[in-house]
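May I ask for a single protein's sequence together with how it folds?
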Amino acid sequence: MVVTIDVARNRLYLFKDGELVDQSLAATGSEKVLKSGRRIWLFRTPHGHLKVLRKIVNPIWNKPDWAFVEAGDPIPPPNSPKRQVKGHLGKYALDLGDGIMIHGTDEFDSIGRKVSHGCIRLPNDMLETVYKSVAVGTDVYIFESERSQSATKRERHSDLDF
């Protein structure tokens, strides 16, 4: 099995022996920047070759500092129970490392849009299919099939800067 994710089209593809088995809309990183004092976060789905490092049933989201900053709430200590959120990531998660996962969501209208903080969100039925189909060590390739409009605009503007 191989998983590919096209962030330009917000789609996840599942392949077996080079043949497409299934595909689905997905939510991917918003590309937004959040600043708080000297801290800066970029909410981007990383591109490249990753691997499934572990599979998790009923994952609990350990809310990072940026989630509190984004909500305008004070940041609690690292061991605070306020950081533990059950149900937000769906029934399954595939850990790709560095805080990036393929997981479900309780924000169903986010599917098919660039709204995540870097993770890849899937509808529940596709998440279950992917979870049951892949093993730890499965290759995951994340790419962008076409340049985003904002990148193209930046390039056009930089061409004008002499």
About this structure: Confidence is low (pLDDT under 50) at residues 152-162. Residues 149-160 form the longest helix (12 residues). The two ends are 48 Å apart (CA to CA).
